[in-house]
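User: Show me a protein chain along with its predicted structure.
Assistant: Here is one chain, sequence first, then structure tokens.
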Amino acid sequence: MAQLTDDCFAFSGPLMPVAEMERLIETRVTPVAERETVSLALARGRAAADDVVAPVDLPHFDNSAVDGYAVRHADLKPDADTSLRISARVMAGEKAAVPLAPGEAIRIFTGAPMPMDADTVFMQEDVREENGRVIVPSGLKQGANRRLAGEDLKKGSVAIPAGRIMDAQNVALAAALGLREIGVLRKIRVAIFSTGNEVIEAGEQLSGASVYDANRALLRELLMRLGCEVSDLGILRDDPGKLGEALRKAAAGNDLVVTTGGVSTGEADHVKSAVESVGSLTFWRIAIKPGRPVAMGVIRAENGANAAFAGLPGNPVAAFVTFVRVVRPLVLRLAGATPKPFLSLPVISSFDYKKKSGRREYVRVALRARADGDYDAIKHPQDGAGVITSLTETDGLIELPEEVTQISTGERVRFLSYASLTS
């Protein structure tokens, strides 16, 4: 289980800034300790448990980067074509049988080892063959189109640092080094449930006051994309006693419990009091819009283990925004991963917008290419935190920092794509 203390998220202010929330997660939350060794086929999405050190040079021999002709640069005329006798050919997977003699060239193919004494390769499309000889132009630099042993990685260097998520690129790197398996931290176990007397399962009969539960489907997909093992505990009704017992049971077998709904200040919002009955709620309001009522704390299980708790708003858009800005960094920290900063892209605002100072806001926008190569950000016409189509019909979010109070049409703003926010 995750090693958490009751005060790991402690904050004394009325509204926690996003940056302070991220700092608390980074400094107060300890990753899971359990490690396992898995095949590369199962490594995607996992955090490397230790530094992966290159067991060989990559590449481990000098080789050609192109199809062409390997030559000695010293044989080339500096200001005229040079005619060289073609003495041999070497394919990828073969070894050059003889060294390259002065005045000769060897036909070579991409990935084939460089012949002894050859130091430069001409691309085949830049030369011509005549009667067993190759005519090469002047001007090619020494070492062109040659890949040196170890130019990618030197033997003994760190290829994959501990904490890096094993995405497809890093799995490929490990394979290129000849590794068949890798040590990773175990997957994070997360329990999810929705709350509310109005929420029903898909397929059930709608009444005039009921709504289908979209939030659990949203959370499940987002958590699985982060490599979590997800336990879906369904829908819990607004009963403080039952909520508290469900939270305690969920904490016994999971590192994190995530709920949606019931963390506001309404009389029927019982999650806050339920958490306080079985653990500690250390903050429940973040200076973020949409999604200010976000709870975070620790739940004490009957077996003595502690699980982190995150309570998200019930409106789907608010649940999405608070997940990517609050739950995602918590999951990555628990998993031992080193999160990359979100990559924001500068785009042009096509709308005017005002906001309060001291609060970070996220505006849903679609992008439209401009003739000058820039992109316009088109604001979705509906701002409501319950409008799910405002997520499906847009490309990402404009992030407006706390100190900004307004933006104007034509102003450059920061765009975060949904792809970057959920990976």
